[in-house]
Amino acid sequence: MLSVGLVGLPNAGKSTLFNLLTKRSVPAENFPFCTIEPNSGIVEVPDKRVSELAKILKSEKEIYSPIEFKDIAGLVKNASQGAGLGNQFLSHIKETDMILLVVRCFQNENVIHVENRVNPQEDEEILLLELMLADQQVLEKTIPRLEKDLKSNKDRLLPDKIMIIEKILEKITKLELASTFQLPAGSDKDLLKWRSGLNLLTDKPILRLANISSDTENLEYQSDFDLDIFLESTVADMTESEREELGLETQTGLDKLIRACYYKLNLGSFLTVGPKESRSWTFKKGMTAPECAGVIHTDFEKNFVKAEVVSFQDFIETDGYKGALEKGKLRIEGKEYIMQDGDVVEFKIGV
């Protein structure tokens, strides 16, 4: 299961957001370093397609794709040098697959800011700089080890590896993320694997979340996603009809955020349906039908024969597998088929 690390300065709203996402009680007091160990929680990825499938087949259960969120303690300036337990916190970020950068954009004198001012762009710069400096330390320690191994001539790729590190360091010194340097398509497979294995903080996908307020002034900030975390906390327990009565969208901002993180990780969902359960399964976009079968059970990938596939929309419009077959909407796909988000599928497995 892939995980999302909530990263931000102290009091940016991370722990409050985490509480809302996971409905778990974790500390969210209004002072720095309240969170030391990263709290984690499993969240269902909202997907109305599952409930619509369940209605057609009258499924007993609905099961949704999971995603993990980790609430990581607030970073501060010089965290890469150990400030505010920075090194410990940075190591927690390393264990995640994606960074959700939570940046405060609202003015409120009753909420402390660790820098005694509110400036979203400067906050982002502090956070990204600390991540880049942490990556720089890792890379600078790696070069001498590779150069030492170079003398023994045991690894034909060592000169390329040293070159790659130097290129990434060059990017970082220009305050560019490590992800801005990627090997060209067609590069040596072992080199590509080694490059991804560096597991640098600024190689991870980053989604910038602006924590805004509907009641106070918000400062300008180029974010990927805006969310009024306080407002979400006040309407979190409302039903869809109650939200409608207040003129709010039936789909909560939290639901949209969870899905935004899911897609930022390049994930999709294929769907299975039957009398016992309707379910969404997580897959990495680009995976083949046998690989997706392996998500359900490893033996399914090894013994894959074919997949019967219907798009979700066709499945709904034809009222199930039988209608899809009659209307010519059901397809038989083989081992080379690339699974698509929203495919309703039944795998045929040999013995």
Summarize the structure in words.
There is one protein chain. With 351 residues, the protein is an alpha/beta fold. The chain has 2 domains: 3-203, DNA polymerase, domain 1; 286-349, Beta-grasp domain (Ubiquitin-like (UB roll), Roll). Helix content is 39%, strand content 20%. It contains 13 helices and 12 strands. It has helices at residues 14-22, 48-57, 86-94, 120-152, 158-173, 189-197, 229-235, 240-245, 253-264, 289-296, 298-302, 312-317, 321-326; strands at 3-7, 39-44, 61-63, 66-71, 98-104, 206-211, 225-227, 267-273, 277-284, 304-311, 331-333, 343-349. Strands 2-4-1-5-6-7 form a 6-stranded mixed beta sheet, sandwiched between helices. A 3-stranded mixed beta sheet has the order 3-9-8, with helices on both faces. A 3-stranded antiparallel beta sheet has the order 11-10-12. Strand 8 and strand 9 (277-284) form a beta hairpin. Helix 4 runs antiparallel to helix 5 (158-173).
Mean model confidence by pLDDT? 88
Number of helices: 13
Instruction: Please name the CATH topology of the largest domain.
Output: DNA polymerase, domain 1
Principal-axes geometry comes out as: flat
With strands numbered from the N-terminus, the spatial order across the biggest sheet is 2-4-1-5-6-7
Helix content: 25-40%
Q: Could you give me the name of the CATH homologous superfamily of the largest domain?
A: Obg-related GTPase Ych/YyaF, coiled-coil domain
H/E order of the elements?
EHEHEEHEHHHEEHHHEEHHEHHEE
Any low-confidence stretches, pLDDT <50, length ≥5? Answer: 24-36
